[in-house]
Amino acid sequence: MAKTEPARGARPARKPSSASTARAARRPASAKTDAPYHHGALREALLEAAERVLERDGLAGLTLRAVAREAGVSHAAPTHHFGDLAGLVSELAAIGFRQFNAAMASACDTATTPLGRALARPKAYVAYAEAHPGMYGLMFRTERLDYSRPSLHEAAEASFAGLANAVGAMRQEQISGDALTLNQGAAIARAWSMVHGFTMLLLDGRLTDILERTPKGTTAEQLLEAMLTSPMTGKPPGS
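-> C-alpha cells emitted (239 positions)
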C-alpha cells in the first residue's frame, strides 16, 4: 500500500484546459487596466456622476460621498478635484448654464420667422427646465454657488447676455449688458420674471389648475405662447 499510493502533494499538476488558458489570456495583467478613468477623465466622470445624483436625489442628496459612490471611486476623489461641495456644485452649475445657453441658441437658429425667433428662446428655456429640473434648480440657487469660479461666472454672464440680446432684438435696439437704462433693465426683468415664474409654477405643478380650466387639450407650451403674445387689455387703475 505504501508503495502504490502517491504521497500527498506529489500529485502531478493537471494540464490547463484550452478554455482556462483563454480565460487567463483575457484576464487583465494588473488592477490598473480595470480602472475606468484615464488621462484626466476622472474630473468629467465625477461631474457626470454629480448630475445623475442631482437629477435622481435632488440637491439635498448631492454630497461628495454620494458622487464618489456614483462614480465608483474613492471618497477623496471629489475633494481632490473640486476642493469642497461648493466647488463641485459650482462647476456642475457652469455645465448647466452652458447646456442651457446652447439649447436656447439652437432653438433660435432653427426658427424661420420673426415671431418664431421671439418665441424660440422662452420655449427652449422652459423645455430645458422640464428635461433637467434638478440642474435648472441648482443654477438659480445662488447661495450654494461660488461665482468667483471663472467657469461659472462666464457661463452665467453668457446666459444674461443672451437674454439682453433677445430683449434688445424685440425692442429693436442694441442693449449692452454692462450699462442698462432703467427701461432696458425693466424690460429684461419683465421678460425674465415672466418666463422664470412660469417655469417654476410648471415644475411645481401649480399650472395644472389653470390648464384644466382652459379648452381641452391645451398644453403648457400653448399656454406659454399665449401668455407671451396676448396683449394685456384693460386700463391701468386710476386712468
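Confidence is low (pLDDT under 50) at residues 1-10, 18-35.
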